[in-house]
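User: Let's play a game. I give you a shape written as tokens, and you guess the letters that built it. Ready? Here's round one.
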């Protein structure tokens, strides 16, 4: 759930690039 929150916040700044990074971290966590 945390990943979703971060995804939206970062999405406004960069977009997909960050979205993918956050997604990976979430899976590892």
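Assistant: Ready! My guess for every position:
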């Amino acid at each position: 759930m945390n990943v979703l929150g971060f995804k939206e916040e970062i999405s406004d700044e960069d977009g997909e690039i960050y979205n993918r990074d956050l997604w990976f971290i979430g899976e590892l966590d």
